[in-house]
Amino acid sequence: MPAMATRFLEARFAWARTALDSPARTTRSAVVVGRLLGLAFVVCFATGMYSHALQDPLPWMVFPTRPTWIYQWTQGLHVISGTAAIPLLLGKLWIVYPRLFSWPPLDSPLHGLERLSIAMLVSSSLVQVAIGFLNTLQWYPWEFSFRRVHLALAWVVIGSLAVHVAAKLPQIVAHWRRDRGETPRPTPRIVRPATPDANDPTDPVGADAPATATTRERDGA
């Protein structure tokens, strides 16, 4: 890439990062929202696999028949966690998407693989929660088999999520919870100019100071 084009893109990327900067877009915010989103995905995946296994069991699978409400309970968890994942996913994307404008976009093959896994995670997650929500509404504006696609996307989401967590594990560990020994930062104090003392003999505009043009005008002299 020509040097001029590189400098132009680098400047535009830096401008985008500055324009999108926000105190809420921090690594800790990403970790806090991310762990809730990860929990929702894991619960949704586990309960979804249970449902698929009940509907299409393998020959060696045996499932309990008591209590009778266990399927309703697991599928209620599936719907709740899947629906909760929608705002969590959107919130996570809002926090981290300015990082797409980091420069250079790819600085190593490992970084490229990491970005590829993120692209797979984001795209598959958006499709997964969208078609899952439409399924709760009994609306199917597509021609493919919902169950097959939903099952395949579940494995893509959970696999790319595992890769993403492994790549970001140092940051996750560092920001998982606030250090208990950490003291909050003191609020900066605003030092205001002291009010002149009327009895201060060194004050040129004190009570005993000779009247000047400014004080005469102020007093209406």
Description of the molecule:
This is Cytochrome b561. Keywords: Membrane, Transmembrane, Transmembrane helix. Residues 193-204 have a biased composition (Low complexity). Residues 180-221 are annotated as: Disordered. It is a single chain. The protein has 221 residues and is mainly α. It has one domain (3-175): Transmembrane di-heme cytochromes, Chain C (Fumarate Reductase Cytochrome B subunit), CATH 1.20.950. It contains seven helices and no strands. The protein has helices at residues 3-19, 27-55, 70-96, 109-136, 146-167, 169-175, 213-219. The longest helix is centred in the first third of the chain and has 29 residues, at 27-55.
Secondary structure layout plus pairing:
Elements: H1 3-19, H2 27-55, H3 70-96, H4 109-136, H5 146-167, H6 169-175, H7 213-219
Concise overview:
This protein is mostly helical and 221 residues long. The protein has helices at 3-19, 27-55, 70-96, 109-136, 146-167, 169-175, 213-219.
The fraction of residues assigned to DSSP E strands is: under 5%
Question: Mean pLDDT, nearest integer?
Answer: 78
- What would the CATH topology be? Fumarate Reductase Cytochrome B subunit
Tell me which CATH architecture applies here. Up-down Bundle
How many extended strands? 0
- Helicity level: 55-70%
**Morphology:** elongated
Order of helices and strands: HHHHHHH
Total individual domains: 1
Helix run count: 7
Uncertain segments are 180-192, 202-221
Q: Which value, in Å, is the CA radius of gyration?
A: 30 Å
Could you state the CATH homologous superfamily? Transmembrane di-heme cytochromes, Chain C
InterPro entries: Di-haem_cyt_TM
Region (Disordered): 180-221
Keywords: Membrane, Transmembrane, Transmembrane helix
Transmembrane segments: 32-53, 73-95, 116-137, 149-167
